[in-house]
Amino acid sequence: MAKIRLLDEDTINKIAAGEVIERPASVVKELVENSIDANAGRVLIEVKDGGKSFIKITDDGCGMDAEDLTLAFQKHATSKIRDAGDLEKIATLGFRGEALASIASVSRSVEVRTKTRDSLSGTYLRMENGKIAETKEIGCPVGTSITVWDLFYNVPARRKHLKGAEAELVHITDIITELAIIHFDIAFDLFTGKRTLFKSAKSDSWDDVLLRLFGLKTLQGMAALQAEGRGWSISGVVGDALSLRSSPDRIFIFVNGRAVSSKTIATALRDAYRNIIPLGKSPMAVISLEISPELVDVNVHPAKREIRLLHEDEISSVLFQRVAEALANHAKPAQAFPASSGELGEQSLADQGTFGTIAQSCEQSTLPIEMGPAEPGQANEERPKLKILGQILKLYIVAVGEQGLVLVDQHAAAERIRFERLTKLYRSRSIRQELAEPVAIELSPSEQIMITSWQETLEDIGFEFSPFGGNTYSVRAVPALGRRLESAEAVHDILRDLFLRGKVGPDSTNRDDILKLLACRGSIKSGKELTVAEMNRLLQDLGECDNPLTCPHGRPVMVVIDQNQLERLFARR
Ligand code: ADP
Ligand code: MG
Q: Whose CA is nearest to atom 14 of ligand 1?
């Protein structure tokens, strides 16, 4: 008996959907891209329950007539290309003709209302389980409105992997933000219930959307750039060395109006920032490449996120040069960088306020010095019974104690000290520290969702903030980490970190995790040279900890090499 059989249409659609429709945001992306391809001037996006139970996209584009509408939901049905030759010159966002079929196959029902400019009446179509359940003539405005009910109701494996409604909303907001940057000539409105998550007006440049996304301060530090070569041109804006993120989530790359992840462009960008920004940090940038359609293959990946470019080398080397020039002219990186190493400086033991003065008064070399009294007149009893020899590799404090040679990991030690302090403050309900002056921070649309939905947790750990109009939030209190959090950038940074690592979700009730993150955020890092006074202070504070041997993440803080081990090392035993 033959083992090979042809799959039925529904199964084929579900397989295709598996590649294209990963989560509610993918549906939103496909439908809004269809609206853009239909020349809409305005697109309304309404979702419920993070898009899981309801997504409705309404546009004022060209609409479909009754005949096209029934075809639109068939697999490989598209108005955008005619044959394989057209694949060489794709000018639309869609072309595979599978989004609508895929969406219909993985949702309980899809409803469409649509009307073209020329026809007198509109058409209504309802799909159920991927099949046409109803069509009729209706009255409706020119354009198209598509509603998707209960996504993945028949694909439990996918449904299980969806996140909470707020997290899915963040994905959706990110998609709309991305589309709105590059399609600035279209007005977008994204809302859920009564909440507007994103709104943009028709504009003749992307400046309005960038302002909303980055905030005024960051945007002012950004430099515009232009570049071109054979058959291609680039326009973009790149952030200065002060506006950094811990992940590349604020790098937007577009090729012919399509948001993509291009290794070529991302690498050229990263190379231009090398040596200007600290390792592990990412800049903010928007890069839009316009390239003759025959020089790019967008059909590499079903979700079209991946592309293949011709002339890659030329594009990346010119882009690299232009970004480097833009940074040099605009942001004066030579000045910008010390500001970020200043941040490292601030991350030292500044929490007591007194430390700054000790550090300033203690400029002697750090290797290897016998420890005298660090400060004249300071009480002696509290000093640890360790004699500091010095610091090695800008990371380990080397000391001698009663048991032998002691090595202390400065970052792990600082983290432990800070973690215990924060925990005590938290338990005694005194972690909240009012700022001398409230600071104003500008949040991106997705950050606004997070700060609102996580308000309770953030307040519990000491934050106090309120919306200030537009993208701005005013922050009046922060967790008591000391001086470090007094600037708007520092406050924003720590919030980003909490958001990024998902430590402050409604589901995360584990305050320990948050305190660990805060402890790590504020502590001395590896790579910082310490003075004897600083080392002394660190060991003394460590001595006061309940659990000085491991950092909050469970790594060892100190290692003792005793006489036995030394003798073994030197083969005396
Ligand atoms: P593709 O976009 O790859 O062509 P889709 O499955 O997304 O495939 O859409 C199928 C067809 O339905 C499109 O080619 C287009 O002709 C039509 N269509 C879909 N959405 C809209 C819309 N919002 N306005 C007008 N036509 C649309
Ligand atoms: Mg499409």
A: 78
